[in-house]
Amino acid sequence: MATVEQKELLDEHLPYEVLMMRYAFETLRNPQPQLAWNAHLESFAVHVRNLVHFLRNKESNLNFKARDFIEDYQASEVKEIEGALSKLESQIRHLGKNRKTEPKDKVNPGRIDKLFKWTENGVERFLQQLPAELRDLYNEAKSRPTGGEITTPSASNHAISITTSTEQAVQRPMGSSVGIYRFLRGSEG
Q1: 77 lies in a domain?
Q2: Cβ(32)–Cβ(169) below 8 Å
Q3: Partners of 188 in the beta sheet?
Q4: What ranges make up the beta strands (E) of the chain?
Q5: pLDDT at position 98, please?
Q6: Which of 64, 79, 121, 174 has the greatest number of C-beta atoms within 10 Å?
Q7: Could you tell me if residue 33 is inside a domain?
Q8: Residue 97, SS3?
């Protein structure tokens, strides 16, 4: 029998992490200003890291692990992503002393693809191994980026709709700083 927390993870939180990883990945593939790309890379890093740690049964007891749902769950071979994951964690999440400046040493589209494919396959493998009563609780619809109305977010981690269409970004002054505004469907967002 699933706990309330397990039900919430399968219905809301795990699909959200997958949704945001997918959205950030798709957005990173579109031409955009460098600052927008950097922001989407940071989003991708947060969500892919959360999912990798979940699948690898990492982190503290405060966070769910795949083993909390499948007792003997083992992630597939992680050697293929260790280098990319290490670069991602050192570049994005920390102001570390070994943080790199050369593009060849940073997270790049090839490393992003590798992390995305491993994580996407890992989530699918996890869902296939879930017992049927738990698999039925996973809300697949919440994990798929779709087009939709542009809305005002009502809370963090509460995506009402997300589009993966190419967006045109322009810079405009915002007080004494410069803000980046997006124009979606011809209206200022």
Answers
A1: yes
A2: yes
A3: 183
A4: 168-174, 177-184, 187-188
A5: 80
A6: 64
A7: yes
A8: coil
